[in-house]
Amino acid sequence: MEFIWKIGGEAGFGIMGSGILFGKVFTRTGYHAHVYSEYPSLIRGGHNTTQVRISDAPVHNPKKTCNLLVALNKFAVEAHMNEITERGGILYDGDEIDLSDLSLPQNVVLYKVPLLSIAKQAGGEVIMRNTVAMGATLALLDYPFSHLEELIKEVFARKGEHVIDVNIRAAKGGYDYIIDNYNASEYPFSFEPKPQVKRCLMTGNEAIGAGAIQAGLKMYCAYPMTPASSILHYVAKHEYDHNIVVKHTEDEIAAVNMAIGGAYAGVRTMTATSGGGFALMTEAIGLAALSETPLVMAIAQRVGPSTGMPTWTEQADLKFVLNASQGDFLRVVLAPGDIQEAYELTQHAFNLAEKYQIPVMILSDKFLSESTTSADIDQLNKIPIQRGKLIVKDMEPLAQKEKFKRYEYTDDGVSPRPIPGIIGGEHVATSYEHWENSFSTEHFETRVKMVQKRAKKIDELVKDLKPPALHGPEDADLTLVCWGSHKPIVFEAVDLLNDAGVKVNALHFSYIHPIPPKAIEMLKSAKRLVIVENNSTAQFGGYLKEHAGVEFAGSILRFDGRPLFAEEVFEHAKLILDGKEKDVAVYDKERVEYYSAKLVGE
Amino acid sequence: MVDIMDLTTAEKPQWCPGCGNYGILIAVKNALANLGRESHNVAVVSGIGCSGKDSHYIRTYGFEGLHGRVLPVATGIKLANRKLTVIGMGGDGDGYGIGLNHLIHSCRRNLDITYIVHNNEIYGLTTGQVSPTSMKGMKTKSTPHGVIEMPIHPLALAISSDATFVARGYTGNIQHLTKLVEEAISHKGFALVDVLQVCPSWNKVNTPQWFKERIYDMNQAGHDPSDKLRAYEKALEDVMTGYEKVPIGVFYRTERSTYGDELPQIKDAELIEHDIMNVDMSKTLAEHI
Known about the structure:
The structure holds two protein chains of two kinds.
Chain A: E1 2-11, H1 15-27, E2 32-38, E3 45-55, E4 66-71, H2 74-80, E5 84-92, E6 109-112, H3 115-121, H4 129-140, H5 146-155, H6 161-181, E7 199-203, H7 204-214, E8 217-222, H8 229-237, E9 245-248, H9 252-264, E10 268-273, H10 275-291, E11 295-301, H11 318-323, E12 332-334, H12 339-356, E13 359-365, H13 366-370, E14 372-376, E15 390-391, E16 417-418, E17 428-430, H14 444-456, H15 458-461, E18 469-471, E19 478-483, H16 487-499, E20 504-509, E21 511-513, H17 517-524, E22 529-533, H18 539-548, E23 554-558, H19 566-577, E24 583-586, E25 592-593, E26 598-599
Parallel strand pairs in A: 1-4, 4-5, 5-6, 8-9, 8-10, 10-11, 11-13, 12-13, 15-16, 19-20, 19-22, 22-23, 23-24
Antiparallel strand pairs in A: 1-3, 2-3, 2-14, 7-14, 12-21, 18-20, 25-26
Helix pairs in contact in A: 1-5, 3-4, 3-6, 4-6, 5-6, 7-8, 7-12, 9-10, 16-19
Chain B: H1 21-35, E1 42-46, H2 54-57, E2 61-64, H3 70-80, E3 85-91, H4 92-98, H5 100-109, E4 113-119, H6 154-160, E5 165-170, H7 174-186, E6 191-196, H8 208-214, E7 215-217, H9 228-235, H10 237-240, E8 246-253, H11 282-286
Parallel strand pairs in B: 1-2, 1-3, 3-4, 4-6, 5-6, 7-8
Antiparallel strand pairs in B: 5-8
C-alpha cells in the first residue's frame, strides 16, 4: 500500500515543513515515509514542491507520479497536473483559484476546499493553508484526525497554547470540510494506523551530523553552503547537548584548517561543504595527507560547475574529490546510499581517518542530504570507536635537542601520534617532506621512503572497506552499477524489472575509493554492465574502467538537476537490454521553470 | 624552571646572515623560558615563508601548515585544548596578504593565542617580491617600477578589529622584543606582535640604518596602552609622519572575555578531555521520531 502526496506553491509558505509534518503522522503510526523537495535558490517566490511517499515498506526515493496534488496556487496545477495518477485528486482552494480554463487530465477528482477561509476562520493566516490541506487529506484517507492533533501540540509546544489551538482548528476545519462535502470513501486510498515503532524521520545531512556526534565529534568547523549547510545547523543545534564546539568560520579555508588544527591537538573534528567550498579546501587536503593528520570532510554535491543550480542535485564532483589537491597521496572516499549508511559511514570515516591518519571524504548530494527518510532507530548502528596509534599518555621525556619520531617507518606505514601536552612527544606536524623526526628534508632516499611509508597504509586499509551491495538475482542478464545516493532508485528499478520478468541486478558502491578488492571480482563476473549516474560523463564508470579494467555496455545518465527516477531506470535498462539504446541522457521535458515559476517551451 | 636548552633543537637555523628571524627566534625562546612554559605544553604554529621554519627550530610541539593559514590551525589547536600555550608565527605576506582575513577574525574572536608577525616588508623565500607592508614606491621583482598601493597598517587594522593586545617590536632590540613577547603570551586573549625586521637579501630600503634613525620606544615616551583612540593614532604615526618616526612597544591592551570563556561546552573540561567512547544518542535520535 502506497500513497504519494505532493504539495506545491511559491517559496515562503511553509511547504517543505508541511511535508515533514505530514510524513511524521504516518511514521508515528507504523508506516514508512520519504519526503522529497524541489525548490529554487530563492527565499520567497519561485516554485516549490514537496512530495511525501507513504508506504508499508521502507521507502528511500520519490516517484514521478502523485496520488493527490495540493495546489496552493494555480501554477502548481499547471505544472503538475500530468503527474497525477488515475482517480487521483487535486486539492485546491476553489475560492482563490479558477481551473476552468485548464484542460485537466481525465479521471482526476477535484477537491475544492476553501483553504484560506478555513485558515482565517480558525484565527490563522495564509501560511496555514498547508495545515488545512493536511487535515483535508487525512479525511480523504479515512485516517483518524487525532494523530495530526497530537503532532501539532508537540511541534508548536514552544509557541504556546494559542498557536496550537489555531493550528488544530485549521487542520480540523479542513478535515471536517471533506467529511461534510465529499464522500471520502470514493477516494481510492485509505489507511489505518498501525502499532507504533521507534521510527525516526531524518535527512541525509541529519544522519551525517548525528553519525558524527555518535562518533565523538568535538569540533565542527564550516562555512554555509547549500546543500551542506543543514549539517552545520544540526550540529550547532546540539552543541550544548553533546558539548561540541561549532564554529561558523570566516571562510572554507579557515574551516578546514581549523578542523586540521583541532585534529592535530587530538579531538575528532569535521568540516562539510559543497563543490565550491570544497574547491577552496583542496589545498588543505594535501596538508592533512602530508602531515598525516586525520581529516573528515563531507561534501554535499549540487549542480556545477561554478554556482550552477545551487538547490538541485548532481553526482558530478566525484573526480574532483578523488583528485583534489596536488601530489600523490592516499585518501578514502565514501558515498552513503541512504540515511542508515550515512549514519554508519560517517562514524566509520572518523575511525579510518584516525586509524590511518589520512583525509576521508563523505560524498553526498542534494538528493540524499536534503531528502527526509524514515528509519527504525534500532537500524541506526553505533560503530565502535577506533583511534589507531594516538598517544594520549605521557612518555619518557625526550633528551635535549631530541624530537619524537612522529613519522617513524613502521610495518603498516602508520606512525605513533602523540598530541600536544603529552610529555616526550614533541614534534612538528609539517606540510614539508620530512625525516622520521619531522624535520624538513630534501634527501632523495628519505623522500622515496616517506612516500612509500604513507602509501603502504593501503594494505591494512583495504581490509576495512566493504564490497558493493548486490541487489536482485545473482545470475542476471544485465547489472546496473551505481554509487552513493542512487542506491534506492536503482534498487527499486531492479525490483520493477524483475517483477516484469527481466533478469537484472544492481551493484551499489558506498566505498568508492580505494576500490574494495572484492568489487573488481564482482564487476568482472557480471554478464553486461550498465553504469547509472547523476552526471553527464559517467565519472564513476570512467573510474571503474581505469581501476577495475571493466567495460560498460551502456550508460543511464542524468544531469538536469534532478535525481534519476526508478521508472526511468526501469524503462531505459529494458531498452538497453533489447539493444535499442546504449548511452542515454535522461532529462525531464516537464515545462515548469522553478526559478521564476512559469511554463516554458512546448 | 625551563632551560632554554629544553627549547632548542638539534637542527641549526638556516636563514641568511643578518636575518631578523634569528632575533625573533631567540626572543620567543627566551620569553617561553622566562615564563616557565614547558616544551610539551607549547604549540608553535607556522605558515610558509622564511618564518615558516620557526616551528622546526623551537623544540616544542609544532605545526607547519599552509601559506597564510597559521591562525585557523592555531585556533583549532587552542579550542581543542586551552591548557596549551599556542603561538602563531608568520610573515607579512602570510599574515597581512594571503591570510589577512584570518587576522581580522582572530582579533574579533579573541582566543588566547599569541601571533608574531615577522614583518620585513618584502617576500623573502620567493626571492624578493612586494609585500602588503612594502612602502609605496618600493621597487621589487614584482613591482620593478615601484609599488603603487599604500601599505597595510596592521596595527591600526588590529585595533579597529577589537584585538585586545597590539604591540610592535624590532629585531634590533632583542631585550625589548623578548619583554613584548612575554607580555603577549601572558595576555589572556588574542595578542598581535608585529615585529619589524630587516631582510638583508631583498629589502634594500628598510635597512638597519633606516630603522635606527626612526624607531623609538613609545611606552617610554609616555604612551598609555589603555587609550584605544590614542593607540589607533600611534598605529598610523609612521605613515602620518612620512616615516620620520616609527614607534615600537605596546600600542593597545585591554581585557575582554576570550572566545573560549563564552563556551559552556568547555567550561568544565577541555575538548580533548571529553569522553567520546560512550556518546549517548538516545535523546538526540528520539527527537526525530
